[in-house]
Amino acid sequence: MRGRLIAFEGGEGSGKSTQAARLAERIGAVLTREPGGTPLGETLRDVVLHHRVDDFDARAETLVMLAARAQHMAEVVGPAQNNNRTVICDRFSHSTLAYQGYGRGLDLADLRRMCSWASRGIWPDLVVFLDVPPELGRARMARPADRLEGAGAEFHARVHAGFVEMAREDPKGWLVIDGTGSVDEVAAQVAEGYDRWAGVRQATPKPPWEL
Ligand code: TMP
Q1: What's the confidence (pLDDT) of residue 207?
Q2: Which residue has the CA at smallest separation from atom 17 of ligand 1?
Q3: For the chain, what percentages of helix, strand and coil (3-state, to nearest 5) are there?
Q4: How far apart are CA 115 and CA 34, in angstroms?
Q5: What are phi and psi of 202, to 5 degrees?
Q6: Counting atoms of ligand 1 from 1, which one is nearest the CA of 146?
């Protein structure tokens, strides 16, 4: 049995890190993030998000994200799945498609193949997309803290449109959550959607013959 992989996706300020942690605690999953999740991955995260170069090439940016993912798969995600643990990852391959594909304009078919290669063919079993209009996400952040957060309103609008399109193309694999409510409201929606997806029975009273 291979554990499931659940990815949380969304734009900046969508609240996905908080919500990924909430669901991981609720279901006892391994919680990790991208880029990052390993010592090498966290070093690469620092390079790709905080490197003070204005003309970081889009392909170089992609390859750093994918290097972090390859290490993450080898060191954390793959072994946890092999131990039948559910893994919740704060961002995964669909962030590459949204940011480097829809956002930077790199070819989506190329990126899909490269993501598959980096992740050893593994794609999330479920993507939880916290849908927050980019303007609201930006307003939630005090100020852009890194290179991608500061990439501009048009860039973030394309990223958001990309997530919306990918969710529409794969309604069974994506759980779209309205991320504009309070943390508790959003967590309740995530929990309900996850339970439905996982086939867990809701709190309907059991029939007498099952008591
Ligand atoms: P966050 O996890 O704190 O939101 O920051 C990660 C940043 O990296 C975010 O701006 C999205 C970006 N990113 C990519 O551009 N491509 C990727 O493949 C991944 C995983 C993240």
Answers
A1: 64
A2: 96
A3: 55, 10, 35
A4: 13
A5: -75, 180
A6: 10
d(CA 104, CA 102): 6
pLDDT grade for 99, boundaries at 50, 70 and 90: very high
Q: Is 87 helix (H, G, I), strand (E, B) or coil?
A: strand
Residue 143 pLDDT > 90: no
C-alpha of residue 182 to centroid of ligand 1, in Å:
23
Helical spans, DSSP H, in 7-130 = 16-27, 39-50, 58-72, 78-82, 93-95, 108-118
- Among 129-143, 172-186, 189-203, which stretch is predicted with the lowest mean pLDDT? 189-203
Instruction: Find the Cα–Cα–Cα–Cα dihedral 127, 15, 130, 87, rounded to 10°.
Output: 10
Report the alpha-carbon distance of residue 165 to residue 79 in Å, rounded.
31
Among 137, 16, 1, 183, CA closest to 88: 16
Which residue's CA is minimally distant from atom 15 of ligand 1?
99
